TrEMBL record:
Gene: crcB
Name this polypeptide is given: Fluoride-specific ion channel FluC
Activity modulation notes: Na(+) is not transported, but it plays an essential structural role and its presence is essential for fluoride channel function.
Primary location group: membrane
Native source organism of the sequence: Pseudomonas zhanjiangensis
UniProt entry keywords in alphabetical sequence: Cell inner membrane, Cell membrane, Ion channel, Ion transport, Membrane, Metal-binding, Sodium, Transmembrane, Transmembrane helix, Transport
Family statement: Belongs to the fluoride channel Fluc/FEX (TC 1.A.43) family.
Matching InterPro entries: FluC
Any single Pfam family the record assigns to this protein: CRCB
Length: 124
């Protein structure tokens, strides 16, 4: 289990550094379009989590450390949007469309509301 913990920590560090580097690069070239960095890492993370999940379904022999390091660590550090997207897709695939739609709506609007609430707390 310690190997998986180390893999997640290392992957998380790399994913976070990649998100940081992407944001800095975008901001230095197109500061007025700062949100493109987040969009890019979110879309890339979604693409990668779908790919890795599919590969790991086909290849059960892939070690836990590699699976956890890539999906939970690296992609978790890069973006949590990829995990949200995978969870929603899995709900849809399991025939739980109403729950998937509710989950997606609550995640997006709940996240926006929570962000607004957190920001509002700083103004008290």
């Amino acid at each position: 289990m310690i190997g998986a913990v180390v893999a997640v920590a290392a992957g998380g560090a790399l994913g976070s550094l990649m998100r940081f580097a992407t944001a800095n690069w975008i901001n230095s070239h197109w500061p007025q379009h700062f949100n493109i960095a987040t969009l890019l890492v979110n879309i890339a993370g979604c693409l990668l989590i779908g790919y890795f999940y599919g590969v790991f379904l086909l290849r059960a022999d892939v070690p836990l450390e590699l699976r956890a390091g890539l999906i939970v660590g690296f992609l978790g550090g890069l973006t949590t949007f990829s995990s949200f997207s995978l969870d929603t897709l899995r709900l849809l695939e399991s025939g739980q469309a109403p729950l998937a739609i509710g989950y997606a709506a609550f995640s997006v609007f709940g996240g926006l509301l929570a962000t607004w609430a957190g920001l509002s707390l700083t103004k008290l």
